[in-house]
Design brief:
- The complex is a heterodimer of chains A (about 300) and B (about 800).
- Chain A has about 300 residues and is an alpha+beta fold.
- Chain A has twelve helices and 14 strands.
- Chain A has three domains: about 50 residues, Uridine Diphospho-n-acetylenolpyruvylglucosamine Reductase, domain 2 (2-Layer Sandwich), CATH 3.30.43; about 120 residues, 2-Layer Sandwich (Uridine Diphospho-n-acetylenolpyruvylglucosamine Reductase, domain 3), CATH 3.30.465; about 110 residues, Enolase-like, domain 1 (2-Layer Sandwich).
- Chain A is globular.
- The two termini of chain A are about 35 Å apart.
- In chain B, strand 25 and strand 26 form a beta hairpin.
- Chain B has three domains: about 180 residues, Aldehyde Oxidoreductase, domain 4 (2-Layer Sandwich); about 180 residues, Aldehyde Oxidoreductase, domain 3, CATH 3.90.1170; about 325 residues, Aldehyde Oxidoreductase, domain 4 (2-Layer Sandwich).
- In chain B, helix 10 packs parallel to helix 16 and helix 13 packs parallel to helix 14.
- Chain B has about 800 residues and is of the alpha+beta class.
- In chain B, the strands form eight sheets. A seven-stranded mixed beta sheet of chain B has the order 3-7-1-14-11-12-13. A five-stranded mixed beta sheet of chain B has the order 9-17-16-15-10. Chain B has a four-stranded mixed beta sheet with strand order 18-28-29-30, sandwiched between helices.
- The termini of chain B are far apart.
- Classes of the chains: A alpha+beta (about 300), B alpha+beta (about 800).
- At the A-B interface, helix 12 of A face helix 3 and helix 17 of B.
């Protein structure tokens, strides 16, 4: 499909050059993986006057663990997340999430930061960042800001980023206590799909629990009531049943072309239960392999 | 030896058991070209710097009157060559009924219909300028539902219907939205229902589906300065397209001799590239920019909404049955949502109507198969041609009946299954059929009656069973021809015009020629056609080309063989009756020592003692037309004709595991047993079973076409219209072939390409019922629908 819209193209060599370009040009858009942007250009749903291709900014392509803070650069692709030794050993659930994104070809180009900048309701990266209290680091010519994930997602496709800002990286604080996570994504078949609904959980050995949902509201949603309820408890049937009951207080699914709200709500409960049990089993060391389909 | 009356081929080869190539899994003749990338598809062809590109201006309304088209702004864009709309082409055309237009005239009848086109130097310019074409509409209330379209006060979508030219076996109802009404009446329905102990009635619904070929439609037209029109098209029907282009463009003074269609390889057809849909645009637009080729490539979205869609159907049925399971009567009312234009789709309705009993012996039958215009995209041919649609309801319903009678569903089917010689719905006799054997073998393979239990308590298991049948749906005089010519080394070119659309057709034609002539497949070249060079073929549809073109190729090979024997007996004085072909040589039964290589004479002939020559290049021809077929019958009963050349039958069984919480279905095993007569190439047939089954399973499990209340297709993309990936294929697909020869088929073969997807939907529906006790009566049966049905039951 032909791209009709005409635009300027710039490939800066430094972050400073990129920041100046977006500062000067209100109609600028950033190109990293391009898996969303190029589709939108073909459809004519965006009309940038300038495309700033940041793929040459090597400093944004790093995965670094500093103490307990995991930093993921803006140019890190989902494929690179899956292959990262650091992530595989320190936060393996992120490889599970990355592996559920689209298909191999897309994962080789698409970035996690691009995913949260597009901020569609079905994004796979949202629930984990929200639940783990991640920080989004942005820079502008005049300086930087750190935005907590819970303040990042404003509406469907709308984030807290301001004109002239570029996301440099995301930092995820890894909990002190040992634990394990699980991400379950509901799709219409086994092939690549956008989430009809998704659930992320993380359980700590000492009783901490974190829960978030995707595709069941305009933005990813944190399950704070469920977290409180689960804190320090063993996952017996009564505890799980109450956790499932609480789901309808946490999420607000709609009916659209991908699923009805009834199925979304029902599946959030089923997925929450399976994710919790899988995370618990992973802590014990006999859980399902990361990436295995649990639904 | 020669062709028997009626065009059928009867030959001593039929009795020969030790085939050299037939029945063997010969390697595909197009394999190297496809694997190496040498194979060219429409978008690979180069047309030089003069190539122009067309972008289509489409209707945003399902039903509207066109008030005004203003092209002035678009015409001013630099790089735009021409803007064309309906006023240049006020012609109707169509395959079976002339109800379609090159561009919309006074009305648009579906969202996405072509209203105008911009021809420009680049695709981007064409697209940009197309947005500047202003079309003013009077928006009308669309008719989007088949039952609404049948109401007396429904708006008429084609008020001129009575004037439309159509084939003699269509029966449009004037002043209605009924484009064709196929009525079948056999036996006596009163008697049938009176003699029944029970009557079971129900309604089943099948929505629309898209073919989803990986290659979208595309065509390039060139009208040169000698007024020669050449069209390159991704096509299942080069000759039929040539004929329809010539018919449609006749007012411009274009005749058949002027039109040439060249068909490169095709990236999937499934019926969607049969007949003429968007290709007319390349042909018509080319005439407006004489001397320049113009390309029209469909986007994925256009592929969904402006080619053909599989028609939706609402099937109401009543079945009379005795306590012992004997079916006494069947009434079917099939209401087809045929869309805005039915020039092809009405024949789907026709074919399904004639066969809507399924492969059962039912003495009393009443079928109304009604083709209804709606303001949705045009319906048309799709693998299965109406049979997948009615088999879903019928096989679901019969399963329910067996259960209510407390009969085993397989035994119930065995009891009523049609057999050779039984009377068909239109009065003819059933052809040879191994249906009973197919049923038994499929049941045995799936271990019917043995209940499996999942190790996971969340999962229920079930098994499903269904029968299927299908006949080619085609005009009674649909014909195939073949040319055959030798090369100096004894290799062979076979020229045919049926299309390789992935099924392995070219390979099977090489096998047929090779078997007759004693030549290995590797020495035979068969390629996709050019209508100027290759002989006539109706279309690559209806699962008929292995049978029909195969017969033509076989006759051409026999013609070549006879010429070879003539030459050898004349030049060398050999007893003609003793000659036979083997190992690329002519041999003699009487003289074991004699052997003459084909390469020694098939071009240059045989030199005599005096230095003169006998023989010369061997060029042969073959033609097949089923002279026994007729589409003429009593319109009130359908009795009297012989519309179907043969039925291919079979049985299918499945084992599923369904998650009671998520509704997701896993398929450990599926079996398909089919009797398509002699299997010419087992590997290719297994490919058909695998592909057809996976395609059919997707229609029931995933594919879900959604329209807005205004008639706009909401999921014209693979993001929200799901076709299976490798991960969605059943764990095991078992093919079983039962071989009862088709007397008039090449080496005993019958058609099989479409059949393998037909039973997929009801085996799933029946297996889900078996596993969960839930009967879902409309497709698709997605995980969501299963899960919600289970929640509802709680």
């Amino acid at each position: 499909m032909a791209i009709v819209h005409e635009f300027e193209y710039l490939k800066p060599k430094t972050l400073k050059e990129a920041l100046h370009a977006v500062a000067k040009n209100r109609g600028a858009m950033l190109l990293a993986g391009g898996t969303d942007l190029v589709g939108h250009l073909k459809e004519g749903s965006v009309a940038p006057s300038l495309i700033v291709d940041i793929k040459g900014l090597r400093e944004l392509k790093k995965i670094v663990l500093k103490g307990r803070i995991l930093n993921v650069g803006a140019l890190v692709t989902f494929g690179e997340l899956m292959e990262s030794r650091v992530i595989q050993s320190k936060f393996p659930v992120l490889t599970e999430i990355a592996g559920k994104v689209a298909s191999v070809g897309i994962r080789n180009r698409a970035t996690m930061v691009g995913n949260i900048c597009s901020a569609v309701p079905c994004l796979d990266s949202g629930p984990v960042l929200l639940a783990m209290d991640a920080i989004i680091h942005v820079k502008a010519v005049r300086g930087g800001r750190m935005i907590p994930a819970k303040k990042w997602f404003l509406q469907a496709r709308k984030t807290a980023i301001k004109p002239g800002e570029i996301v440099t990286h995301v930092s995820i604080p890894l909990p002190e206590e040992k634990g394990a996570g699980c991400y379950i994504k509901l799709g219409r078949y086994q092939g690549e799909d956008l989430a009809q609904a998704s659930v992320f959980v993380w359980m700590g050995k000492k009783g901490q629990s974190r829960v978030a949902f995707g595709s069941v509201g305009p933005t990813p949603l944190r399950g704070t009531r469920i977290e409180k309820h689960l804190k320090g408890k063993k996952l017996d049937p009564a505890v799980l049943d109450l956790a499932k009951e609480l789901v309808s207080e946490e999420v607000s699914p709609i009916t659209d072309i991908r699923a009805t709200k009834e199925y979304r709500l029902h599946m959030c409960k089923i997925m929450l239960e399976r994710a919790l049990l899988s995370a618990e089993a992973r802590i014990r060391g006999n859980g399902p392999k990361y990436g295995k389909s649990l639904i | 030896m020669a062709a028997a009356k009626g065009g059928a081929v009867s030959d001593e080869l039929e009795k020969k058991i030790d085939f050299k190539v037939i029945g063997k899994s010969a390697v595909r003749v197009d394999g190297k070209a496809k694997i190496s990338g040498a194979a060219q598809y429409i978008n690979d062809l180069e047309f030089g710097p003069g190539l122009l590109f067309a972008e289509i201006v489409e209707s945003p309304h399902a039903y509207a009157r066109i008030k005004k088209i203003d092209t002035s702004k678009a015409e001013k864009v630099t790089g735009v060559v021409k803007v064309v709309s309906g006023k240049e082409f006020p012609f109707r055309f169509g395959l079976y009924m002339h109800d379609r237009y090159v561009f919309a005239q006074d009305h648009v009848r579906f969202v996405g219909e072509q209203v105008a086109a911009v021809i420009a130097r680049t695709p981007a310019i064409a697209k940009k300028a197309a947005r500047l074409v202003r079309v003013e509409y009077d928006v009308l209330e669309p008719v989007l539902d088949v039952e609404a379209a049948l109401q007396d006060d429904a708006p008429l979508i084609h008020p001129e219907l009575a004037k439309y030219q159509h084939v003699p076996w269509f029966f449009p109802k004037k002043n209605s939205n009924i484009a064709h009404f196929r009525k079948v009446r056999k036996g006596d329905m009163n008697d049938g229902f009176k003699s029944a102990d029970f009557i079971f009635e129900d309604t089943y619904t099948v929505p629309r589906y898209a073919h989803c070929s990986i290659e979208t439609h595309g065509a390039v037209g060139l009208f040169d300065h000698s007024r020669r029109l050449t069209v390159w098209a991704a096509s299942q029907s080069p000759h039929t397209q040539r004929h329809l282009f010539a018919e449609a463009l006749a007012p411009l003074g274009i005749t058949h001799k002027d039109v040439r269609v060249i068909a490169p390889f095709v990236g999937g057809g499934f019926g969607g590239k049969a007949g003429v849909s968007m290709e007319i645009l390349a042909a018509a637009l080319a005439t407006t920019v004489q001397g320049n080729p113009v390309k029209v490539m469909w986007s994925r979205a256009q592929e969904f909404y402006n080619t053909y869609q599989r028609q939706g159907v609402v099937a109401k049925m009543r079945v009379g049955v005795k306590k012992d399971g004997t079916i006494t009567a069947l009434e079917q009312k099939l209401h087809w949502d045929a869309g805005a234009y039915v020039e092809y789709g009405a024949n789907v309705v026709n074919a399904a109507g004639l066969s809507a009993t399924g492969p059962y012996r039912i003495p009393n039958v009443s079928i109304d198969s009604v083709c209804v215009y709606t303001n949705l995209p045009p319906g048309g041919p799709y693998r299965g041609f109406g049979y997948s649609e009615f088999i879903f309801g019928l096989e679901s319903h019969l399963n329910e009946i067996a259960k209510k009678l407390q009969l085993d569903p397989v035994e119930f089917r065995l009891k009523n299954a049609i057999a050779e010689g039984d009377t068909l719905n239109y009065g003819g006799k059933m052809n040879p059929s191994g249906l009973q054997e197919c049923i038994r073998k499929a049941a045995q393979e799936i271990e019917w009656g043995k209940k499996t239990v999942s190790s996971d308590p969340k999962k229920a298991t079930g098994k499903g069973f269904a029968l299927f049948w299908k006949a080619p749906a085609m005009p009674p005089n649909a014909s195939s021809t073949a040319f055959l010519k030798f090369n100096e080394d004894g290799s062979l070119n076979v020229l045919v015009s049926a299309m390789e659309i992935g099924q392995g057709f070219l390979t099977v034609m090489a096998q047929i020629a090779g078997e007759v002539l004693g030549i290995p497949v590797e020495k035979i070249r068969v390629e996709t056609p050019d209508t100027d060079r290759n002989p006539y073929e109706w279309q690559t549809v209806a699962s008929h080309i292995t049978w029909s073109t195969g017969n033509a190729v076989k006759k051409a090979a026999i013609d070549a063989r006879e010429q070879i024997f003539d030459t050898v007996s004349r030049a060398l004085g050999k007893d003609r009756d003793s000659l036979y072909l083997e190992d690329e040589s002519v041999k003699s039964k009487r003289e074991p020592a004699f052997g003459l290589k084909l390469r020694d004479f098939v071009i240059n002939g045989i030199m005599m003692k005096d230095g003169t020559w006998r023989g010369g290049p061997i060029v042969a021809r073959g033609m097949f037309m089923p002279e026994f077929a007729s589409a003429i019958s009593d319109p009130e009963t359908s009795q009297g004709g012989k519309p179907n050349v043969h039925y291919t039958v079979g049985a299918s069984a499945i084992e599923i595991e369904v998650d009671r919480e998520t509704g997701k279905v896993r398929i450990p095993k599926v079996v398909l047993a089919v009797d398509c007569g002699k299997v010419l190439n087992p590997d290719l047939l297994k490919g058909q079973v695998t592909g057809g089954m996976v395609q059919g399973l997707a229609t029931v499990l995933f594919e879900d076409m959604r329209f807005s209340d205004e008639g706009k297709l909401l999921n014209a993309n693979f993001t929200d219209y799901k076709i299976p990936t490798a991960m969605d294929v059943p764990d095991e697909i078992v093919s079983i072939f039962v071989e009862h020869a088709q007397p008039d088929g090449p080496f005993g073969a019958r058609g099989v390409g479409e059949h393998t997807m037909i039973p997929a939907a009801p085996i799933i529906a029946n297996a889900i019922e078996d596993a969960l006790g839930i009967r879902l009566k409309s497709m698709p049966i997605t995980a969501e629908r299963v899960a919600l049905a289970l929640l509802d039951r709680k």
